[in-house]
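Let's sit down with a protein and look at its sequence and fold side by side. Which protein we use is up to you, so please pick one and set it down. Label the sequence line and the structure token line clearly, so we can match residues to local backbone shapes. Go ahead whenever you are ready, and we will take it from there:

***
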Amino acid sequence: MSAKAIKKIAIYGKGGIGKSTTTSNLSAALSVLGYKVLQVGCDPKSDSTVTLRSGEYIPTILEILKNKNTPKLHEIVYTGFNNVYCVEAGGPAPGVGCAGRGIITSVELLKQLRAFEELDLDYVIFDVLGDVVCGGFAVPIREGIADHVFTVSSSDFMAVYAANNLFTGIRKYSNQNGALLGGIIANSVNQPYSKDIIDDFAERTGTKIMEYVPRSLTVTQSELQGQTTLEAFPESAQAQVYLNLAGKVAQHQESKIPQPLEVEELRKWASDWSEKLLELEKGTVQSTGASI
């Protein structure tokens, strides 16, 4: 009998963009669709899985290894909402050591313990900080640990800038059997111009939008309760957005090498959009008679 195919996904994004919120809701949604999921938090803040665990932080692998050289699988893996498995890699104290060391150590330990096979998983989702220049954060891409990479980005320039840098890294490691790009999860897209900006960036870099996720008070309410939206408000419109995203991720098969913009191209692109938005604002002012 052949081994079960496990889909390994890395989700990157600029800090503060809503990456962990999106990842946790994606994990929850995949579990609701009937899949067995492991979420590996790769941010040194160790808060990736907190809403899957009703607001409870779990011990990180680096913390556990301080007291035990060879921990058992059940000592590093915790169960969250709808039986989503949760792991936090952890990191060093702020200002000390390499922030990516937790990822490297965690991946090695999970391999050693044959965690993916033992848990009989359908999905492994790595939640990775995407705007830190550190070799550890490139591990899921560089080592081919992930099969597909998705990035969470809004239309804000710094989020797009981080996504473009990620695309550069994916292209660099693509000739070394690195993970390829599945697409962009467009977060906080509430205005038509936001959709137009992120759509244009996706087209210019040879990728696609997986889903548009609007900014929602429902998400804020859920997180204040220490829960994912799928748990706190399962019948909400926002929960359906995450279920739609999960369905698209489940159907996704072919990832590609992105075509990142060069620095000057990106600056020109941003400048052009700035002028377009200024013209749009002027047009709105003239048509409404409002003052700026």
